[in-house]
Amino acid sequence: MPRNAIARTLMGVLIFQLGIAAFLILGDMRLGQLRMPGFGPETPGLTQPVRPGDQRRTYAPDRDRPAVQPARDPGDLPDRLVLTPESGATWRLEGEIAEGDATRIADMLAEADPAIETLILQSPGGTVSEALSLGRAIRQAGIGTRMLSGEYCLSACPYLLAGGATRRIDPDASVGVHQHFYGRNVLLPAFVAVEDIQASQAEVMDYLDEMGIDPMVMRHGLGTPPDEIYILVPEELERYGFVTPES
Questions:
Q1: Coil, strand or helix at 59
Q2: Is the pTM of this model over 0.85?
Q3: Helix, strand, coil percentages for the chain (3-state, nearest 5)
Q4: What are the start-end ranges of the E strands in the chain?
Q5: Which of 115, 126, 146, 166 is surrounded by the most beta carbons within 10 Å?
């Protein structure tokens, strides 16, 4: 093949590949998962204070922490849930929610002596299905959940919070929701697996209703892309039923 023809062929392949890349990037930008500097509105970082009407923050679980400093700095949270005693019948449940955690932690809750009455939560989120299973185990055991000032429960963690038989949340705690993560590029998975995604969302809504949480809280999650988090203000936590009345 003549050298000029080879060059034209390679150039055509390059242009084709660039076109595919541009299509995927534009798709991600349209879905809110990639924001290039200077394009579109900038979302504040998670370290910026949250106020009503200004609640969406950028979110990278491996580096972002909420604005209010906790009284107790946990350092880097583990990549799997860790259950540790705090004081008396109050224990801590901290770390990312990973595959297999629901059964493992549920067994630990059942074996604790004396019985656990309250779980203090702190987690950046993780696997939704594990959070739902563990949330049901927490409810079945009659354990309450609690959030302390400056600590956070984000992404899938609010499903653990919802599982509490009673739920207490400090006004300066951060509870946040966003879209569930379905792959590195959600454009293609959403196209080929939309039925599974919708079924998963329906399962979450059923779970929230089962736990006494208004499923309308999902509108904030569904409207917030996975690289952002919507922080629920105290008024919303009460409105959607995350805070239970004190006896």
A1: coil
A2: no
A3: 40, 15, 45
A4: 56-58, 82-87, 90-94, 118-122, 144-147, 152-154, 167-169, 174-177, 228-231
A5: 126
Structure tokens at 157: 């963690």
Asked whether 48 and 241 are in contact (CB, 8 A), the reply is no
Distances (CA, A) of 197 to 47, 180, 193: 31, 9, 6
Token code pair at residue 242: 């995350």
C-alpha 214/C-alpha 243 separation (Å) is 12
Amino acid at 147: M
Q: Say how far apart CA 91 and CA 120 lie, in whole Å.
A: 6
**Per-residue pLDDT tens for 162-183?**
999 999 999 999 999 999 865 4
| pLDDT tens per residue across span 16-25 | 444 544 544 4
> Measured between alpha carbons, how far is 32 from 24 in angstroms, rounded to an integer?
12
Task: For 173-195, give one letter per residue: b (16+ CB within 10 A) or e.
Answer: bbbbbbbbbeeeebeeebeeeee
